[in-house]
Amino acid sequence: MDKKARARATASTQDHLGIKDIQDDLIITTQGSVAMVIQTSSINFDLLAEYEQDNKIYAFAGLLNSLNFRIQILIRTKRIDISNYIDYLTTSMDRKQMSEGLRKQLDIYTNFVQKLIIQNDVLDKNFFIVIPYSPGAPIPGTNILDSKKKKEEQEQMNQMKTDQLVEKAKIFLFPKRDHILKQLSRMGLFGHQLTTKELLSEFYTIYNPDEE
Questions:
Q1: φ, ψ for residue 128 (rounded to 5)?
Q2: Residues in contact with 206: Cβ distance below 8 Å, sequence separation at least 6, in sequence order
Q3: CA separation for the pair 172, 168 (Å, rounded)
Q4: Which pTM was predicted?
Q5: pLDDT at res. 100
Q6: 20 inside domain
Q7: d(CA 174, CA 20)
Q8: Is residue 151 exposed (0-12), middle (13-18) or buried (19+ Cβ within 10 Å)?
């Protein structure tokens, strides 16, 4: 594939994704808006005592009531291949140095895990909070090319407008991020803003689910 064909294919893919760029740990959409993504840890709610469950519910209600801006809560569920873990249990561990009782317990555990993955899918859940920022209109000049200007000049102008948009988005999003992280900590959860590298990895796995 030559460079022109590759560029056309890349542009076509970006049109379907709706993502113009990922810059400074922020997602820039083709519509001229910006989004920040926070990944948060999780808890097993069913294993908590009743009073602990009540505390978590009140803390979550406090988070929602404290918001004066929009958020999106996103849950991603992925199937996990733990065949390597089974191989580790059956071949990698040094059973010769184990007592007979420990070997029996390990065999029981290994058989349990093997039956578990045969009868059920092993799933991993990731939890995200998305905070959007929209200036109210698409970036001027992003989609409309001025025929009187050279293409290079237009690209420079668009990049300058994008940089300005990102700086304005940071002013809006950073305080919201800090507020969300503070509220999460009150729930006993840990959150962090996804970096550019992490965002790229997440989007790649979303659109290439069959690849590791």
A1: -135, 150
A2: 76
A3: 6
A4: 0.68
A5: 78
A6: yes
A7: 21
A8: exposed
